[in-house]
Design brief:
Elements: H1 2-19, H2 27-30, H3 39-52, H4 59-71, E1 74-75, H5 76-83, H6 87-100, E2 103-107, E3 110-113, H7 115-130, H8 134-164, H9 172-179, H10 183-195, E4 199-205, E5 211-217, H11 219-226, H12 231-235, H13 238-246, H14 252-272, H15 279-305
Helix pairs in contact: 3-7, 5-6, 8-10, 8-11, 13-15, 14-15
């Protein structure tokens, strides 16, 4: 009873301070602690948060969530350096967070908060900001918006850039592979571009004559794409377009990585069977492909510099 009464009194005082300025600043309405007006609600929220991760035993997990909520998508190495924990400790804690559905793998070794994790951190932030001065709470909110915007802009630019290099059509499957994201994640950013009128849905016939729905750049989307640095030259770069096509890639970096992996893996095989009858033919084809792709990359680079 004593604890509940103290929490209630504290919340009433905080609400009095916040409500003095909510009419003059709409932002304050967002950080109003109406959801925690009563001490029982505060304790319920704390219990809910603690049910995901035990405050007394999950310190590293909380550090990871706080790092991702402020820094955005990060690798194990970046998180390890950011929270001053060993990579093994971070990897073990990350595995637990993945099992709980609080984080998700974005790309390769890159992790970010899942929808469930974001909701959990919002509840925690609402409690933290409720006890902070208004100016400090505003600063925290602004930092969150910057981090969220940076991640959003990165994926939106990658989608537009890939569409510009694919005759205006978003290569969904290629982007999923190159960015290392699920269809659900990519679709989320495509929907954002649709809402901004930079993309549009179009029905087209595929190679089998079947009508399929694709996402295509709108007139505004094309204008935006042409304003991207170097995009006009890259879009007309036939050599790099061929590289992207033969490697089934949406990004030039991914195309080059795939080629390097392919040649690195096939070279030892050719050397191992060098005494076989078909070795000369296979070696000639391998060497031809290597020279051909190298020339494509060099000519594409020259064309971009010209």
């Amino acid at each position: 009873m004593f604890v509940n009464k103290s929490v209630r009194n504290t919340n009433f005082e905080l609400n009095d301070k916040l409500n003095m300025n909510t009419n003059s600043n709409p932002y304050l309405e967002k950080i109003s602690i109406s959801s925690v007006d009563h001490g029982d609600n505060v304790l319920d929220i704390l219990k809910e948060i603690d049910s995901y991760i035990d405050f007394s035993k999950g310190e590293v997990q909380w550090k990871i969530l706080l790092h991702l909520s402020t820094k955005g998508p990060s690798s194990i190495a970046e998180i390890s350096a950011g929270i001053a924990e060993s990579r093994k400790t971070v990897s073990d804690a990350m595995r637990k967070l993945l099992m709980k559905g609080l984080v998700e793998r974005v790309k390769y070794d890159i992790y970010n908060l899942s929808d469930q994790g974001s909701q959990l951190m919002k509840k925690l932030n609402s409690l933290i900001m409720a006890g902070q001065p208004v100016q400090q709470a505003q600063k925290v909110q602004q930092e969150e918006l910057v981090n969220e915007s940076a991640t959003q802009y990165y994926y939106e630019l990658e989608i537009i850039r890939a569409a510009m290099l694919n005759n205006g059509v978003v290569p969904v499957k290629r982007l999923m592979l190159d960015l290392g994201v699920s269809y659900k994640t990519l679709k989320n950013y495509i929907d954002l571009l649709l809402s901004k009128k930079l993309l549009k849905k179009v029905n087209k016939n595929n190679i089998f004559g079947k009508i399929t729905q694709v996402y295509e750049l709108s007139a505004e989307g094309r204008k935006f794409g042409y304003r991207l640095p170097g995009m006009a030259k890259m879009r007309n770069n036939i050599f790099w377009k061929i590289l992207l096509t033969i490697t089934y890639s949406a990004k030039l970096e991914s195309a080059m990585i795939k080629l390097m992996v392919a040649f690195s893996l096939t070279a030892p095989i050719i050397l191992y069977f060098r005494d076989s009858s078909w070795d000369k033919i296979a070696g000639a084809i391998w060497l031809y492909c290597l020279i051909f792709t190298m020339l494509l990359g060099i000519m594409g680079y020259v064309m971009m510099r010209g």
